[in-house]
Amino acid sequence: MKFNTSQCCKKLRQIQEKTEHKTQEWLQEKDVFITAILVGLLAHGYMLTNKLANIDDYISMFHYGLGYTLGRWLLALMGNFMFRIDGVYSTPFLNGAFFIILLGLSITVFLKPFSFQSRWVKRIFAALFVSFPTVTCTMGFMFTVPFYALAILFMAIAYHVLINYRYGFLFSILLICCSLGIYQAYWGLLASFLLLYLITLCMNDDTDVRSLVIISLKSLCSLLFGVLLYLGVNQIMLKIQNVELASYQGMSQMGQISLSQIPSIISTAYGWFFKLMTENYLDVTSYGIIRAVIAAGYILTVIFFILSFIQNRKYVFKTVAMAVFTLIFPLAVNSIYIMSNDASNVHTMMCYSVVLVFLLPFVFLDQVTGESLKALIAGAARYVYLLALVLVIFFYVRLANLYYLNLELANSEIYTFMETLNTRIQSTEDYSEDKEVLFYGMYDDVVNRNIWEVRMVSNMTGTIDVANAINSPLIRQNIFRIYLGVTLNETDGAAIITEYQEVLDDMPSYPDDGSIVILDDVIVVKLGELSE
Known about the structure:
This protein is about 60% helix and about 5% strand. By secondary structure, the chain is mainly α. Helix 4 (about 90-110) packs antiparallel against helix 5 and helix 6 (about 135-140) packs parallel to helix 16.
């Protein structure tokens, strides 16, 4: 067989030209990536340049947290792999910068298929994506931030291969499974972006019914089988590790939904979608101005949805599909209520997909083109809404910095409290390092709460105060060991409690004089009364 040099060279040139074309396509999106990085640094630079531990970071500063028992088998595999290299460390700048960069890449991938009339739509939304309160809360869990960043990127890549390659949905199933194996809350992010993409296809004259049906079925299969594959792999991993799912935040009930629960789940998902306009939802809508902007976006969506419906009514199938996808969108945005199986377990870190409500109006606004009065109104509405989103970004950036300020002040209070406590313990008569220490009772959590001036972030995921720190054996031991260089020889003191119950009842609570005594060679610190 003769080697055809000319054909080989021609093939290589075609590959080179295709590569250059693809490279140019991605380079056109560089403004989205750069915007995400710059706003990400503005929002989270405070966190990157300080060591601000939240409630979990004190426990897992040199660990990746819980893995298999929370259904996060890939997190455990990657974390254990890192231990084989040199360990897992909660390093603020490196981990935080990695997170922001991967978020920038993810939103660039997510937005690439959309052809908005103004590049500012993508830039503004990229800024929203990296400053959203979910990102702020996640930053507090600095020990595991790099892994969460990969989970989001996996969803973005799953989205890209699904809509761009014939058999990409097979690879997307695997990527969805892997993302869920790190953190289960990002499924709704992918589902919501896919629905918005499908809505744009429905309103595109060049989209034929066959291709729309195919991409819709591929999307459904990827989302569904990705979850099923994850659940299957998770069961295998639990058996291999000989562990069970923890009851924490309803993990033990994951994937178990009865028919009687479905109406409640749907009601909750749609209910919160509309309550975003009126209530503070998990600190995402803590400011009234943000709720007003969301309400304005919903109004624009309804108006231009109706116009698009009328404009495309001759394409019956596509118009009906557009309506169905739009109606399903709120369920996708709040799909965490399906994943968690209990509304009370949902917190700010789990609601990243809610950020998509800010993009929804543009999907319909951009369908009105030309020089008609409708087009002029749509254009004006687009730029007014963009300006409103700039204001939302400002408040989210501000909220992020307030959250970090709150953590810094709380950390300072905790260090001072622990240092003083350590000094008081060591000042006790007949003190020695080898004596056991018994912490009795619970410190009054009403006395030391976060600084009231920044109370608007005191309920965000991961916040901590003195009471949280001193009442948790793991946290107080780590603070004494890591920050004070003191190893506490703690004991549960069952025998002491039984023998000296009356003495303990009569003792004053810390920090009052007499709250630290030595009983039977055990240092007893009475933090407060026993919790019932």
